[in-house]
Automatic annotation (TrEMBL), chain A:
Forms a complex with SecF. Part of the essential Sec protein translocation apparatus which comprises SecA, SecYEG and auxiliary proteins SecDF-YajC and YidC. The keyword Transmembrane applies. It comes from the Bacteria. Residues 353-521 form the Protein export membrane protein SecD/SecF C-terminal domain. Residues 159-218 form the Protein translocase subunit SecDF P1 domain. It is found in: Cell membrane. Gene3D superfamilies: 3.30.1360.200, 3.30.70.3400, Multidrug efflux transporter AcrB transmembrane domain (1.20.1640.10). It is a multi-pass membrane protein. This is Protein translocase subunit SecD.
Automatic annotation (TrEMBL), chain B:
Its main location: membrane. SUPFAM superfamilies: Multidrug efflux transporter AcrB transmembrane domain. The gene is secF. This is Protein-export membrane protein SecF. It comes from Novosphingobium anseongense. It is a multi-pass membrane protein. Part of the Sec protein translocase complex. Interacts with the SecYEG preprotein conducting channel. SecDF uses the proton motive force (PMF) to complete protein translocation after the ATP-dependent function of SecA. Keywords: Cell membrane, Membrane, Protein transport, Translocation, Transmembrane, Transmembrane helix, Transport.
Length: 535, 325
């Protein structure tokens, strides 16, 4: 018991002081004192509920990814088989029921078809599974089904792109340091500190910004279009408003032969020179510009539709070939909405639609208020507790109190070093940890009292106290860890912040309340060699 | 220096003598709490039912003008708001159901909240917007189920841990004590209709952990005494163990309560419900570790030999050999 080698003492002190020191920048910043910038300053992050700001939870539509995959597979299969030598003719193409199926007209070409299609699929995931399942039924019907691994890979890819796009869009709004991360398989958690009104952000993120240029099918009879009947090879697309398509609610456009607006180098809001209307000027990259030039050259004097997120913005006539690689999008915009669309187009289209499923905003004043009150409650609570412990345990109370102060500093220090976030429930966790951390000392000191009452000598009593109490301390802390871990796993946002404080507090409190006090008591016993304990 | 001793030495209170009436009362209380929770229901926040919650502080008023605000919002035609005090008397929260179609287009909900905020701010220049939460039905459903799973998982996992470290009877006792603490706290929230949100689930998880601290300390002493006094009848042994740890129980509970009361009186208003749940839980948790967790060991017939190490085969052969010679 009395034996405490020097290396152990040095290590204990080093660990305690190092972590405690790491808490200093956080404390000074709360108190409003600035430290010279030459020293490193790890700080505890404040959660949105303390700092004020907005949190958005966005959800991607995973079924859309599946649909898109099948659609693009259809394109690839058509292209591939058309280019095959000899040409392979297929028919009865269907993309319903979550798979793609078609019939090879000449049954003799089934093997050749398989050979052509196989390179379109690749391996997915670690299992060596391919991303598509190819089956042949009834001799010549091909059925291509995307595998789970393939879909998951596609969702992963789409989510990565979506996060990039979301980041670009938030940056374009000029807000600082958003925290954007993926949650689960198809969700994105966006936290923007200091953002008071997320309306603009929600509208911006609600835009998929998928831009398409398609030729208008002029053969469609207006009466059919109204009923939603499109001529073969065409589809009916709704217009954003009646003004967009010269008074019609929807128009027919050709499915193929259009181009996508994803090959842009720039998009800015500007004003039309003739009408002074707000428009969006876009600039294609080289490849996109060439495609656009070809489309407009081949279809002079025909109308084409500008489609954004599945709705026709406008359907102007192509008056002359547009060769310069830039174009204007009109569509009864206000300056603000044109600007928003420009941002959305600049940042690229979202690969999937995102929906806001949860939104939380905290005003900055409330957070500041909470920090102040939390700090006061903590100070008063700690002082009162220390007084109580002092009058109950005397000298041993002094040790417990010292351990308590170091514990508070260490929790803060570890949080700062690990770059964790302090939330409002986290403050409560802090206060609670302080109250509960003394439990270890209470257990030890009560046990020492008991052992003394049973007539053990001072040193043995202290030794037994630490030894016998540590079993219960260990078990109690394990149960708290279980609760905290479950809280972290199942909780969200602020609750996680609380669980983190609890977990760090459990570890540091065992160190300070058991190891450190034991060292102090041992050193005192060795020096003073008391024969009587006031306890 | 004379030190404070809250529990005199050699205290011997016959706690277990009253175990039957206490148990009856406790079981009745659990039943009453659960009945209240399921009939009257909890005042679930937007976290768990979805919807929109907007919070305001009226900075130059002593009390929030709840009736006026209700009238103003009623006129907007978004449906009936649920308005209640939140934190301090001059703070209120407005809860709205999400408008039709907002699951598809969240901008609809956004427009509704913008209108409400503008209306309240125009009518009350001292209104400060403190928060604005929108939770869709899908997310709230998930939050509710994951909260419940976390609670149940924590209770079961902790009980299993106790079972492994002690005996199965102790695990059952711990589980019973936890059910007691959680039920009574739920009952408190059903009775007071304080808002029950995610924070309260965190509070429940916390109090599960801390209530178990007391139980473990008592159990640890019971185990120790069972090894020490093999012949002592169980009720007497339990009484002895509870009395021996009584001083610790009281000092620790007081320590935690000191900090919690400071938090309750001086801390942030927003987490009042959270702090209240934990404070209440510390009380019932201390009680349950003495009156719920311990007596059940008698009824489950914990054996005095439970903690005597089993004799291994080799030991047995050696003993028999010794006896023969």
């Amino acid at each position: 018991m009395l034996d405490f080698p020097r290396w152990k003492r040095v290590t204990y002190w080093l660990v305690a002081l190092l972590f405690a020191l790491a808490a200093v920048p956080s404390l000074t910043s709360i108190a409003g004192i600035s430290l010279p910038s030459v020293i490193p300053q790890p700080k505890v992050n404040l959660g949105l509920d303390l700092a004020g700001g907005s949190r958005l939870l966005l959800e991607a539509d995973a079924s859309q990814v599946r649909r898109q995959r099948i659609e693009s597979m259809e394109e690839s299969v058509r292209q591939r088989l058309r280019g095959a030598e000899p040409r392979i003719r297929i028919g009865d193409i269907s993309s319903r029921d979550g798979n793609l199926s078609f019939v090879v007209e000449n049954p003799a070409q089934v093997d050749a078809t398989r050979e052509q299609i196989l390179p379109l699929t690749t391996g997915a995931g670690l299992t060596g599974q391919r991303d598509w399942d190819i089956k042949v039924e009834d001799g010549n019907r091909f059925i291509l089904t995307p595998t789970e691994a393939g879909i998951n890979q596609a969702i992963d890819h789409a989510m990565e792109t979506a996060i990039e796009v979301v980041r670009k869009r938030i940056d374009a709004l000029g807000t600082r340091e958003p925290d954007i991360r993926r949650l689960g398989s198809s969700r994105i958690d966006v936290q923007v500190p200091g953002l008071k009104d997320p309306t603009q952000l929600i509208e911006l993120l609600g835009k998929t910004a998928k831009l398409e240029f398609k030729l208008v099918d002029e053969t469609a009879a207006p009466s059919d279009v109204v009923q939603g009947i499109a001529p073969p090879g065409s589809e009916i697309v709704a217009c954003v408003d009646a003004g967009a398509c010269r008074g019609q609610p929807a128009i027919a456009v050709k499915r193929l032969g259009g181009i996508k607006g994803d090959q842009l180098t720039n998009a800015v809001q500007s004003n039309d020179q003739r009408t002074n209307e707000a428009v969006v000027s876009i600039t294609f990259d080289q490849q996109g510009g060439a495609k656009f030039a070809k489309l407009t050259t081949e279809n002079v004097n025909k109308p084409f539709a500008i489609i954004l997120d599945g709705k026709v913005l406008s359907a102007p006539n192509i008056n002359e070939p547009i060769l310069g690689g830039s174009a204007q999008i009109s569509g009864s915009f206000t300056i603000e909405s044109a600007n928003q669309l420009a941002i959305a187009l600049r940042s690229g289209a979202l690969p999937v639609d995102l929906k806001v499923v949860e939104q939380r905003t905290v005003g900055p004043d409330l957070g500041a208020d909470s920090i102040k009150k939390g700090a006061i409650a903590m100070l008063v609570g700690t002082v009162a507790l220390m007084a109580f412990i002092l009058i109950t345990y005397g000298r041993f109370g002094v040790y417990a109190n010292l351990a308590l102060i170091l514990n508070v500093l260490m929790i803060l220090g570890v949080m700062a070093l690990a770059n964790t976030t302090l939330t409002l429930p986290g403050i409560a966790g802090f206060v609670l940890t302080i109250g509960a951390a003394v439990d270890a000392n209470v257990l030890i000191n009560e046990r020492i009292r008991e052992e003394r009452a049973r007539g053990r000598r001072v040193v043995q009593a202290v030794e037994m106290g630490y030894k016998e109490a540590s079993r219960a301390i260990f078990d109690a802390n394990i149960t708290n860890v279980i609760a905290a871990v479950l809280m972290f796993v199942f909780g969200s946002g602020p609750i996680r912040g609380f669980a983190v404080v609890l977990m760090i507090g459990i570890v540091t409190s065992v160190f300070t309340a058991v190891n450190l006090t034991r060292m102090w008591v041992a050193m005192w016993l060795r020096k003073a060699r008391p024969t009587e304990l006031v306890l | 220096m004379k030190l404070l001793k809250l529990v005199p030495d050699n205290t011997n209170i016959h706690f277990l003598k009253w175990r039957v009436p206490f148990y009856v009362v406790s079981v009745l209380l659990i039943a009453a709490s659960l009945t209240l929770t399921f009939t009257r229901g909890l005042n679930l926040g937007v976290d768990f039912v979805g919807g929109q919650m907007i919070r305001f502080t009226f900075e130059r008023s002593a009390t929030a003008p709840i009736a006026t605000v209700r009238e103003e919002i009623d006129k907007l035609g978004f449906g009936e708001p649920t308005i209640q005090e939140f934190g301090k008397p001059n703070q209120l929260s407005i809860r709205m159901r999400l408008p039709e179609g907002s699951e598809k287009d969240p901008a609809i909900a956004e427009r509704m909240s913008a209108k409400i905020v503008a209306t309240v701010k125009a009518a009350h220049p001292d209104a400060r917007l403190d928060g604005n939460d929108t939770v869709s039905g899908k997310v709230s459903g998930e939050l509710f189920s994951s909260g419940m799973v976390a609670l149940l998982a924590a209770m079961v996992a902790i009980s299993i841990y106790i079972w492994i470290r002690f005996e199965w009877q102790f695990g059952v006792g711990a589980l019973f004590a936890l059910v007691h603490d959680v039920s009574l706290t739920l009952g408190l929230f059903a009775l007071t209709q304080l808002e029950f949100d995610l924070n309260i689930v965190a509070a429940l998880l916390t109090l599960i952990g801390y209530s178990l601290n007391d139980t473990i300390v008592v159990y640890d002493r019971i185990r120790e005494n069972m090894k020490k006094y093999r012949r002592m009848p169980m009720p007497e042994l339990l009484d002895l163990s509870v009395n021996e740890t009584l001083s610790r129980t009281i000092v620790t509970s007081l320590s935690v309560l000191i900090t919690l009361v400071a938090l309750l009186l001086l801390g942030p208003d927003v987490i009042f419900g959270f702090t209240l749940a934990i404070t209440f839980g510390i009380f019932v948790g201390t009680y349950s570790s003495i009156y719920m967790a311990a007596p059940i060991l008698i009824w489950l017939k914990v054996n005095a030999t439970s903690f005597v190490p089993q004799e291994s085969d080799i030991d047995r052969q050696e003993r028999l050999a010794r006896e023969r010679s």
